[in-house]
Amino acid sequence: MSGLNAFVSNGTCYKGRGDSADDLMLPCGNAGLGHKTCCQAGDMCLSSHACFNGKFGVTYLAGCSDPDYEDGSCPDKGAFDDQAWAGLVYCNGTSNQWIACEQSGNAETLTDADSCFCPSTSRTVAFTDGSILDNVVQLPTSSGGSVIWQPGYVPSPTSGDGQETTTGPGDTGTAPPTPDPTDPGNDPDVGSGGLSTGAKAGIGVGVSVGALLILAALALLFLKRRRRASDDDIPKAELDGSPDAFGAVSLAPGTPGSASAPSELDSRAARPWSVRSELDATASSSPGTAAALKRKSQLRHGDNADMLEVPKPPFITHDGNRPSPVAELPG
Fold it and tell me: Which residue stretches does the UniProt record annotate as biased composition, category Low complexity (predicted)?
């Protein structure tokens, strides 16, 4: 038993109790490892013990490898159990019923199927399943050839009694054992990719937070560059006229405001006797010299050059002569 290959089609098929099927009918796997549903060579074995023929586009029921036709792998053709095969039609709606149909001529192998509709009264229900049946295994074109198990239905190594087990539902062999609580295949938190739901959620949150941080950094960089560009666009003349760091206004040299500070210092330093000394020292000078001294004094004590008075011309007597400087001196 342990030397049997689960990846070849081998065995004899029966269309009913003790009634052998045509040689083109092959088991869906190795019948030495357990009874199998039978389909025509080259066809696809489906879930619910059905078959599909690509040449004619027919979904049908055929037979099984159990000569007594009592094994669970043997399809129920109902009222058409005397036929080698019976076509199937899916009755939609809420019933999900697959109905077996009568085939005229009682052909032993697949041909064009007769027209079949869902009857409104009496019907032969073969099985109940969804509108799309699972592909289980692809049969070879002759007995002893290799089969192609479809994903989810690949058989596991044989058990001690020679029965093979498969990894998916709907297999025509022995049903897989119920997994224990530690079996990851029964853990609702384990996804098809091997990551738990919590791990997937954590990855999703991490990616979202990282994307938000990157966007925030880009926005901050953009604002800084925009502010720097705005500062660079301020005219230099406007910067020169703006208040400095200590709140003072920078004035250009030569303005009246800049000349006021030294003028105030000079006025505080002046004393009456200094003026008298200058007058005494220049008493013998001409009236023009006295006018120049008066102008100098006004320049020293004035805050602005605009406040200076225009010197008056020297006094002239009625006879046209200037008064003598000696007459201006006291005594």
Answer: 160-175, 281-292
